[in-house]
Amino acid sequence: MLKTYLIIAILSCLFGSCHPDMFYSWVTLKNNSTKGICYAYSNSFPDTSIPIGNYIPKGTPGPPSGVIQPGESYSLVKSGSLESYFTSAPSGTLELFIFDANTVQTIAWDTVLSKYLILKRYDLTLDSINKTGRIIDYP
Q1: Which of 7, 17, 70, 134 has its CA 20 to 30 A from that of 34?
Q2: Angle at 78 between CA 73 and CA 84, to 5 degrees
Q3: For the chain, which residues make up each domain, given as ranges?
Q4: What is the pLDDT of residues 9-59, one digit of tens each?
Q5: Strands 94-100, 37-42: parallel, antiparallel or unpaired by DSSP?
Q6: What is the pTM of this model?
């Protein structure tokens, strides 16, 4: 019983210490297509190569994100504000890569990278994101 109270107290301290302003909704990606999509993003513009992300063993599929189903939206929530991201982005551009979910789930990630198997790439500035109300519609 004491262990339970101790665990609850520790978790309360950990979660209670997170200031609510530490996490921000950067953009909402809305899937208006008829197929599931995945996304990845990068701040290395003008280098338009797909970000490699976490290590994925050679020859295995690996979606860069969860699947956003047709008609669904997903809010990209990150620590730090979008404004602070752009302050630190060398080019002032956020690249957003959209992939067919079926492709990244069935084709080896290194092949997706080498063949540049994207559906669309958005090159976004803070101003362009704010003009859309922070909603990115695909397609």
Answers
A1: 134
A2: 120
A3: 21-138
A4: 444 444 444 444 577 889 999 999 999 999 998 888 989 988 876 556 667
A5: antiparallel
A6: 0.78
